[in-house]
Structures are given as structure tokens and as C-alpha cells.
Design goal:
Blueprint (H helix, E strand, L loop, with lengths): L10 E4 L3 H16 L6 E4 L30 H8 L6 H20 L4 E5 L12 E5 L2 H14 L4 E4 L3 E7 L5 E7 L5 E5 L3 E3 L8 H8 L7 E2 L10 H8 L4 E2 L5 E7 L16 E4 L13 H14 L6 E6 H7 L13 E3 L2 H8 L3 H14 L34 E13 L2 E2 L6 E3 L5 E7 L16 H21 L2
Parallel strand pairs: 1-2, 1-9, 2-5, 9-19, 10-16
Antiparallel strand pairs: 3-4, 6-7, 7-8, 11-17, 12-16, 13-14, 14-16, 15-16, 18-19
Bound molecules: flavin-adenine dinucleotide.
The site of flavin-adenine dinucleotide has 43 residues, from helix 1, strand 6, strand 16 and helix 11.
Cofactor: FAD
Protein name: Succinate dehydrogenase/fumarate reductase flavo protein subunit
GO molecular function, one term: oxidoreductase activity
Length: 476
């Protein structure tokens, strides 16, 4: 490498979310330890200081117990949900390495909150725990960026969009064409290029093409997602990559339909009911635990011809138990409240007779088993068109509460196929020389997303790939 040329680097990383920051930082740290002088370009479409992408908006719930051990049940969940399609080698590597990732972050100044969940039955084998960084994903990215800024051999190219991969005559990826904010193109060169630039949530054309009709009904759960336009996937497809994950799949969540606040998720469906604008229930809210159903109910509200408009409804018994708490507190709006179901319906602007009928029928169909939110309690309805399998408590203790909800897009599933070293693979299984990918733009989930693992995988495979790339560079 000619180190004198300003457009030459040892590594180009595209995207400055968890995956990109972890790749760049681990590459720099490992190289420094090996006393190898390197130059890194971190190419980012967003502006300096802007909350671009997903990582800067997520609360970053992590599927870890209080000792930062990864949920041992996740691999089985991945196998079941994906009907055996998930890449189990990748899953096993995440399970093995997640704790080291969390420890690495702690060592770098990220503070983790250990959350002991007392009200909601988690499907994790973490003794009712999960973990989140203090200050959420925004704080975690800032910590990583602070460490990156200590390296004067790391150049962050803000407002610079990667457009195309460059290759040498034999097909080895050796750089990226970028588009600067003045609209002009420039070529940057490096023997290795890491794509960490997110999914295609921000690209209506790709959503419609891959996921299908009515994707335009979905709003993004956070504004930073508009930057994730699938360019990484397009660039890799152009040089012949294979794909993985369900291309018609996405992680959606129910969010408060009244607010423009990002990430205003309403998680409470398991312990109440959700109706569409015709006041009909459309999903078994208690089929399984909250985190095993929060995506499915949102997908059904959007995809199941309900106009993506619904209402989560509950009564004082449930509301008093769960507030304050993360289940109903992500929104900045108070729920609608009324002393009768008819009044509630009038406030919501739905048919009072129909809402009353739905709730009366639901109440009459609940069995007499005791309610226990910490178990799949078998407190179910029978005889309804759609029954509720657990936690079916009659809504009979006023006041009654309702949140208007709509499904919002959190992330897409379809992406680039990689091996466990984060090398991008061609359809014949051979790595594409010089091309790497980490984070959400690598395909993993099929049919659904056993959650609280997306952040962990972005961080973990970023960490491992950064280290591996530095070792490879040092050996040359
Ligand atoms: C509101 C919200 C809540 C979530 N909650 C959780 C949770 O609790 N737990 C969990 O595990 N997961 C959660 N997720 C998912 C998780 O946050 C993401 O999967 C993860 O942060 C993705 O990280 P990433 O580094 O792959 O991508 P991103 O963080 O999206 O970073 C990609 C970066 O690439 C940039 N970029 C895009 N295209 C280009 C280009 N062509 N050139 C240059 N730069 C480009 C973008 O601007 C962006 O900065 C949530 C997501 C959201 C939005």
C-alpha cells in the first residue's frame, strides 16, 4: 500500500452504527497492540452529530442475564421460528461471544442496567432478566465514537454515501465509490471493505419489491432509519453476493398512533386485548409470551387487511399493575380513559355497539383459572372466532383505557449472506475477496425475529471482524 496517497486506507468501513463502530474500533485497537500503523476510513451518509441509522435510536434491550450471560434458549427459538432455516453456526458463535462483547463495552465505559422483570413473563432463560445500556443506543454509539476519535489514523467521512464497490481486474474488492454532499463522486481504496450500513427500511422501492404491497402504509419507528436505503445490499449484489433471511419479513412493533415521538412502542397486548378499527379482535394476544408475539400482532394489524389501525384496550386492574414501567411508558401520550366501554368507544371514534359487543363476548368467554402474568397461565377464552390462550382476564374494572396503535417498521430481515468470519459469500459458498459485512444488513431471521439479539449480533460480529481484519493486516 502506498501510505502517501490520501485516498488509500487499510480498511474502509461503511456505516457508523454499532456494527461499523465496533469493526473500526477493534481494528484500530488490535492494530495498535500489534504496533502496526494503519489507516481507516469510516464512511457515513448521515451528518456529524445526527442520529442516523437504527443504533442511535434503539433502547438496546439485550438478551442477557444479570451476569451478562446470553440466553441459552435462543438457539432453539431461532431453530423453531425459522423452521430450521437459521444459520446455526452463526447463532452458536453469537451465543458464545455475546458475553465478551458486553464485557468489552463495559471496559470501554458503557454502563449496563440489569433489568429484573417482575410483571411480564419473558420467554428467555435468563431468570427474568434483560440488560440495556444506560442512555440507550445513542449513549452507546457516543462511547464508541469517543474511543474512535482518539485514533488520529481513523477518518470519519460524514455526509458521504457509499455508492459502488470497486474491484481489481481479478474481481477482488479494493475500494468504494462514494458520493460527497456536493453530489460529486470519489473513489476510496483499501484491501478490505466492511459493509455495515443497515437494512432497507428507508427505501420504499425495495420494500415494495421485496416485502410486498402496502409497505407504504408503514411509518418508520425512528427517523434515522431513512438513511438505511439498502445500498449495502445493492452494492454486494452487484458483485455477486448470496442472500440470507426472509426478504418478505420485517420486524414491526405496535406504536402509539397519536405521537410523532420515535420508538413509542406499546408492548402491553399480552395482558389486554387489541381490536382493529371495526372493533374486532384479530390475533391471539396471549398465544405466547410478550416478546414472542409483539412482532406477530403488529405484522397482522398491518398485513391482515386491518388498515393498520387498531386499539389496545385494558382496564384498571391491568393498568395499575403495569404502570409505571416500560410496558406502557415508551409513548409521551396518556392513554384514553373512560368509565364505560361506550364512552371509551365514543372517544376513540369507533362503533360503541360493536366495541361493547366484542368486549362483552370476550368477558363471557374467559375461564375461571387464576390470572398469573408470570406463567402461561391457561386463563383462556373459548368459543370465540379468535380465542386468547393465556392471561384472558375480563375487562370489567373501570376506568377503561385505550391506546390507538399502528404497526411501525423497525428493521428488515433480508440481507447479505456471510460466514461466521463476516466474509461475504457468493452463491457457491466462496468468500468474495476483500468484501465483509456485519450488522443488520446481513440476513439472519426467517419468519420472525426472536428478539433482543439484533443489537448484540451487530456489536459482536463487528468486534470479531475488526479483530480478525487487523490480525490479517498485521500478518502481511
Ligand atoms: C427504535 C428501535 C428500537 C430497537 N430496539 C432494539 C432492541 O431493544 N434490541 C435489539 O436487539 N434490537 C433493537 N433494534 C434493532 C437494532 O437497533 C438494529 O438492528 C441495530 O442497531 C443495527 O445496527 P447496524 O450497525 O447494523 O445499523 P445502523 O445502526 O442502522 O447503522 C447503519 C449506518 O449506516 C449508514 N448508512 C446507510 N447507508 C449508507 C451508505 N450507502 N453509505 C454510508 N453510510 C450509510 C446509516 O446512516 C447508519 O448510520 C431496534 C431498532 C430501532 C430502530
Amino acid at each position: 500500500m502506498s501510505v502517501n496517497r490520501s485516498d488509500r486506507y487499510d480498511l474502509i468501513v461503511v456505516g457508523s452504527g454499532f456494527a461499523g463502530c465496533m469493526t473500526a474500533l477493534n481494528f484500530l485497537e488490535t492494530s495498535q497492540n500489534a504496533r502496526k500503523h494503519v489507516r481507516v476510513a469510516l464512511v457515513e451518509a448521515g451528518k456529524n452529530g445526527e442520529r442516523c441509522g437504527a443504533s442511535r435510536w434503539t433502547g438496546a434491550f439485550l438478551r442477557l442475564d444479570r451476569d451478562l450471560n446470553f440466553d441459552p434458549g435462543w438457539i432453539r427459538e431461532m431453530t423453531d421460528v425459522s423452521d430450521g432455516q437459521a444459520d446455526l453456526e452463526y447463532c452458536k458463535k453469537l451465543a458464545k461471544e455475546a458475553r465478551a462483547t458486553a464485557e468489552y463495552l463495559q471496559d470501554h465505559g458503557v454502563r449496563f442496567i440489569r433489568h429484573a422483570e417482575e410483571n411480564v413473563l419473558l420467554e428467555f432463560e435468563t431468570d427474568q432478566h434483560f440488560v440495556m445500556p444506560e442512555g440507550g443506543g445513542w449513549a452507546m454509539v457516543q462511547v464508541l465514537m469517543e474511543h474512535l476519535h482518539r485514533f488520529d489514523n481513523c477518518e470519519v467521512h460524514w455526509q458521504t454515501e457509499a455508492r459502488k464497490l470497486l474491484r481489481d481486474p481479478r474481481g477482488r474488492v479494493n475500494g468504494v465509490t462514494v458520493r460527497r454532499s456536493n453530489g460529486l463522486l470519489e473513489d476510496l481504496y483499501a484491501p478490505d471493505v466492511m459493509l455495515s450500513c443497515g437494512g432497507f427500511e428507508g427505501n420504499q422501492e425495495m420494500l415494495a419489491r421485496h416485502v410486498g404491497p402496502t409497505t407504504d402504509q408503514l411509518s418508520l419507528i425512528a427517523p434515522g432509519l431513512r438513511y438505511n436505503r439498502g445500498q449495502g445490499l445493492k452494492m454486494a449484489l452487484d458483485v455477486g453476493c448470496d442472500t440470507a433471511g426472509s426478504f418478505d419479513g420485517m420486524h414491526l412493533e405496535l406504536a402509539d398512533a397519536r405521537t410523532s415521538k420515535p420508538n413509542a412502542a406499546i408492548y402491553g397486548h399480552s395482558y389486554g386485548i387489541v381490536v382493529d378499527e371495526q372493533c374486532e379482535r384479530f390475533y391471539d394476544e396471549g398465544k405466547r409470551q410478550l416478546f414472542a408475539t409483539f412482532e406477530g400482532i403488529a405484522v397482522e394489524l398491518w398485513r391482515g387487511h386491518h388498515n393498520n389501525k387498531g386499539f389496545f384496550i385494558t382496564d384498571a386492574t391491568i393498568m395499575e399493575r403495569f404502570r409505571p414501567g416500560w410496558v406502557y411508558e415508551s409513548t409521551d401520550r396518556e392513554p384514553f380513559q373512560a368509565d364505560t366501554i361506550r364512552e371509551l368507544a365514543m372517544t376513540l371514534g369507533v362503533d360503541p355497539v360493536q366495541l361493547h359487543r366484542t368486549i362483552s363476548e370476550f368477558n363471557a368467554a374467559c375461564n375461571d383459572k387464576p390470572f398469573d402474568p408470570m406463567q402461561l397461565d391457561g386463563k383462556a377464552t373459548s368459543g370465540l372466532r379468535i380465542n386468547k390462550s393465556n392471561w384472558a382476564t375480563p375487562l370489567d374494572n373501570p376506568p377503561y383505557y385505550a391506546f390507538p396503535v399502528t404497526a411501525q417498521l423497525v428493521f428488515t430481515f433480508g440481507g447479505i449472506k456471510v460466514n461466521t468470519d463476516s466474509q461475504v459469500l457468493a452463491p457457491d459458498g466462496a468468500p468474495i475477496p476483500g468484501l465483509w459485512a456485519t450488522g443488520e444488513l446481513t440476513g439472519l431471521y426467517y419468519n420472525g425475529n426472536p428478539p433482543l439479539t439484533s443489537v448484540l449480533r451487530c456489536l459482536t460480529f463487528g468486534r470479531l471482524a475488526g479483530t480478525l481484519l487487523a490480525q490479517k493486516t498485521a500478518s502481511h
